TrEMBL record:
Protein name (record): Aminoglycoside phosphotransferase (APT) family kinase protein
Origin: domain of life: Bacteria
Keyword Transmembrane: no
Signal sequence region: none
A UniProt-annotated Pfam family: APH
PANTHER family: AMINOGLYCOSIDE PHOSPHOTRANSFERASE DOMAIN-CONTAINING PROTEIN-RELATED, AMINOGLYCOSIDE PHOSPHOTRANSFERASE-RELATED-RELATED
Limits of the Aminoglycoside phosphotransferase domain: 37-212
GO-annotated molecular function: kinase activity
Species of origin: Actinophytocola oryzae
Sorted UniProt keywords: Kinase, Transferase
InterPro entries referenced in this protein's UniProt entry, alphabetically: AGP_Transferase, Aminoglycoside_PTrfase, Kinase-like_dom_sf
Length: 248
């Protein structure tokens, strides 16, 4: 072992890596409850749970490397992205987890609240907020619940060559909108959507995925800023929002 690596750390949780073991510490034990249960149910490769002693959860590292990083081009092959799409489809087709997910009303209220905060704090130009909120409304429609990961960032999907070797960080898993997972995975990597959908299947709604890019970026900014992250870094959430102004 070369030492302890701090993977992520903020006031709500911290993840440390020691060799091939990840140690997750969370102030809310319900997050670990969901993570352990979801990994046991998910029909895709997941990390092995080594032990749990609240508030800590130890899981094994998965082989391979992340599909990419937000803010940088993904070097993964089109086939690897297609494999990720196929894995996500298996998840979405699986039986629903027995706990509730966010409702349409929850999402709409969050969008109202976070857009008000963005305006009040002049974080972005008003036109950027207005245009993206207009696009985001497309996602605010009734959806058929699917088993979703709920935080399917590009760094949470691991591949080795053209195969998916593991999907990590399941604490937000719940019944929800399948298009949300597809949007989060391609956030900032919009050019890889076609590759992802090659594996996922032809029935994905591209307009809704595009709407979730805007909705997620609008609603995440406040939390990211408060916890020391920079949504204005190149290729990240604010660039996603600004890109919508350049579209017809």
């Amino acid at each position: 072992m070369d030492g302890v690596e701090v993977v992520v750390a903020h006031s709500q949780r911290a993840t440390l890596r020691v060799g091939e073991v990840f140690l997750k510490v969370d102030v809310d034990p319900a997050h670990a409850d969901v993570e352990v249960a979801a990994m046991a149910m998910a029909p895709v490769p997941t990390p092995a749970v080594l032990w749990r002693e609240p508030p800590a959860l130890a899981i094994a590292a998965v082989p391979g490397k992340a599909l990419g990083v937000l803010g940088e081009p993904s070097t993964a092959s089109p086939a690897a992205w297609a494999a990720a799409g196929a894995a996500v489809r298996r998840l979405h087709d699986a039986p629903l987890p027995p706990w509730p997910g966010r409702t349409l009303e929850d999402v709409a209220a969050e969008l109202d609240r976070e857009c008000a905060w963005l305006h009040a704090n002049a974080v972005l130009p008003a036109e950027v907020i207005r245009r993206n909120r207009e696009i985001a409304q497309i996602a605010l429609r009734p959806w058929k619940p699917a088993f979703i990961h709920g935080d399917l960032q590009i760094t949470h999907v691991f591949v080795d060559g053209d195969e998916v070797t593991g999907v990590i960080d399941w604490s937000e898993a719940a019944p929800g909108d399948a298009m949300f997972d597809l949007a989060i995975l391609t956030l900032g990597h919009e050019e890889r959507l076609d590759d992802l959908l090659t594996g996922y299947g032809p029935d994905a709604d591209r307009d809704v995925i595009r709407a979730w890019w805007s909705l997620r970026s609008l609603t995440a900014a406040h939390w990211l800023i408060e916890h020391g992250f920079d949504p204005d870094a190149p290729g990240c959430e604010f660039d996603v929002l600004r890109a919508r102004l350049r579209e017809p």
